Amino acid sequence: MSNSIVIIPTYNEIENIESIVRAVFSLHKPFHILVVDDNSPDKTSDKVIELQKEFGSQLFLEKREKKAGLGTAYVFGFKWALAKEYDFIFEMDADFSHNPADLEKLYEACHFGGGEIAIGSRYVTGVNVVNWPLSRVLMSYFASYYVKKITGMKIHDATAGFMCYNRKVLETINLDKIKFIGYAFQIEMKYRAYSKKFKIVEVPIIFTDRTKGESKMSNSIIKEAVFGVISLRISKFFNRL
């Protein structure tokens, strides 16, 4: 039995899912995986079911009826993982933009390094992003700068989606109050944890853009993140977070 579960939300990740599952299970530290699939038309879930025959009780699948956003997929996964009594709960993309080997670094930062949240950070030691166009690098970098200025969080990569949570963080945050479903979700989770004085550490990683499948980024997601930060700060000011 592993004390750690990696939540991987999927929508049309048939080109990546088998490789990412095998990469996680090849690590020295044992991890379990929960795939939360939003009824992918490309049958991602069917591939996971096939892999379950090989990996048994290490690999879990929860299939939702339709695409409902990154944030709701993670909240669903968090509640599932808490019910199963995992101590360390991870977020990771399916597309290899996050190196599975870095899961062990995040785990060490939480289990041995005193962190209650560990962030796989692209910007804590400069700009460590591969294969992104300059325009997207600048948008992401300055988004984190913008979040830092508005919220006061001392975090270099506020929009990061490669994370490790100690279960007590997720037990303390009221997951039913999470408002955002796109990348603003990542900011909201960090801000709620920061507001409750949890220790957040950033672990430097190299982020590599996907080579297979399509990005889920959209203008509506960006808009949610920009205005969501202001909404969060106002809620905190009026003690309504």
Strands side by side in the biggest sheet: 3-2-1-4-7-5-8
Q: Helical content, roughly?
A: 40-55%
Uncertain spans, ≥5 residues at pLDDT below 50? none
Structural class determined from secondary elements: alpha/beta
Q: What percent of residues are in strands?
A: 15-25%
**How many E strands?**
9
Please state the CA-atom Rg, rounded to the nearest Å: 17 Å
Order of helices and strands: EHEHEHEHEEHEHHEEH
- Count of discrete alpha- or pi-helical segments spanning 4 or more residues: 8
What's the story with the biggest beta sheet?
7 strands, mixed
How far is it from the N-terminal to the C-terminal residue, by CA? 36 Å
Overall pLDDT confidence: 90
Shape: globular
Quick gist of this model?
The protein has 241 residues and is α/β, with parallel strands linked by helices. It contains eight helices and nine strands. The chain is 41% helix and 17% strand.
What can you see in these coordinates?
With 241 residues, this protein is an alpha/beta fold. The protein is built from eight helices and nine strands. A seven-stranded mixed sheet has the order 3-2-1-4-7-5-8, sandwiched between helices. Helix 5 runs parallel beside helix 8 (219-237) and helix 7 (184-195) runs parallel beside helix 8. The longest helix has 19 residues, at 219-237. The chain is globular and about 50 Å long. The chain starts with a strand and ends with a helix.
